[in-house]
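User: Hello, beginner here. Can you help me understand these amino acid letters and fold codes? It all follows right here:
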Amino acid sequence: MRLIEELKRRKVIRVAVLYLVASWGVLQVAALVFEVLGVPNTSMRLLLGLLAIGFPVALVVSWFYTLTSAGLRRDDGTDQESGSASTAARRINVLIAIVLAVAIGVVLVDRFMVRPGASFAEKAQRGDADVDDPTTGGDVTNGVAPPSTASIAVLPFANMSDDPANEYFSDGLSEELLNVLARVPQLKVIARTSSFAYKGKQVPIADIARELNVAHLLEGSVRKAGGRLRITATLVRSADSTQLWAETYDHAVEDGFAVQDEIARKVVDSLRIKLLAGEADALEAGGTQVGEAYEAFLQGQFERNRGNSPEALAAAVVALDRAIVLDPLYAKAHAARAFTVANQAMNAYVPFEEGFAAASADARRAIELAPGIPDGYRVLARIKLYGERDLKAARELLARARDTGGEDATILRLAMDLALRAGRYSEAVDAARRVTSLDPIAPQSHTTLGVVLWYDRRFDEAQTAADRGLALAPDRPGARYVTAVIALSRGHAARAVSDCELESIEWQRKSCLAIAYPRVGRIDDARRELVELQKASGDGFAYQYAQIYAQWGDARQAFHWLDVAEKVGDPGLILANGDPLLDPIRQDARFAKLIERLGLDAA
């Protein structure tokens, strides 16, 4: 009891309460500020650790020192200035009340004014201002329109197999089911990146539906043992978490494609969307009845979705090659291989001409085998755009893809690319915004929107959009390059250098630094980055060398490397007509001749 009395006399208990309340207030304010600024979560953990370390220090100080009218004095064990002690106690009580009021106020503002029921993902999707949603045609309140009844997100099916390596199968089945539903024109289907953001997370259905702005969710699980499958699927109405239907399927692995179509049909029926006969037939086209081929296809998709690293793309090609060997008539496997090999060529992992030729052959075979699905058309359109700079053919193929498969995020991205390369910037921005509606918490959706706005020379808006993408995924490869070049266009050289240095893709980091370093007086460092890039990549990045020299003001070298890019078939040349990094040489007569020679002037 004497210890408690002494703790009270020395105001240790009051100080402890004040410290805890103040720490809670600091954490509430920091959480709000860090979220708005996109500060990584590790900063919150660091702050919490510092506050925890400070707690015993505050208690020790309060034991040995007391607050008097003359300031802090060492406590010698006697009641010095009892009036002052009483005043100090009252001051501590007032401080506790003030800190509590401020912290509670911050919580209320955050909850009801800054984001009424919304997550940070939603704020990143819509921005701070009220806008009109071009995909709904209606007014939007606080940036989010009520979800359409005909809208759905397919959550990644859980892998219930004993072997964790079977995760590729559950992921692949979920993605294929999503792609099947995306071909229904009346149905809004959230893209894979946003749906898969919830993989492995225990998030309430209502929260997921609100963040993705959909009326329905499809979830399920896959158990694979040997050659047998058990698939469960549940369709949930998000407004009240009501199950519209739930079913379990027991089949052989080779029936996986048929089960996927059966689930898709039941989703469509439950949402009361009437399919035309042609659309119903399209749900079955392009698949396989060979179980091992289906597995290899899903493995290829799984590898490709790991990113555009040389290793991931090479592993994807190996798996897709196996699927095609097992079933040469598997149209979807041919289309997926075409997309993957085209990515290898675009990243200079294989020779441009060789890679695009192989990809084109695969895409044409996919169209020949299944002309009623969009897969082959949209891949071939992409090859025509980047591999051959044939915008007319790409537009025609895009129209065929839309006719056969509606308008999902993949087709919208292709439409955005075509509009961007043709200089139709408002059309490209509109398509990019619609992509963010279908893929709202995918970092690349916002990064891509930033790129499109950058091409339209709307630099401030571009930085805002790109920074949203960066806040959602600070370590995403390629994101720092985009924020850096936009910052350069805004005259923010220090920010650009900082972002360049954090870019994880080596060729982007080096080309970015070669452009940014001279803006802060580091000419020698810039030249070193260019030399190292050329030594590692040869002519593979000729277009990037042209960008660098254009930014250095060396038009002769810039045009030299544009000529080299043309000779080696560098796909980067499709960017030339509107590329802000080539603005310093845009008025040169040689530039107009180049654009005419490339066939981009008629775009």
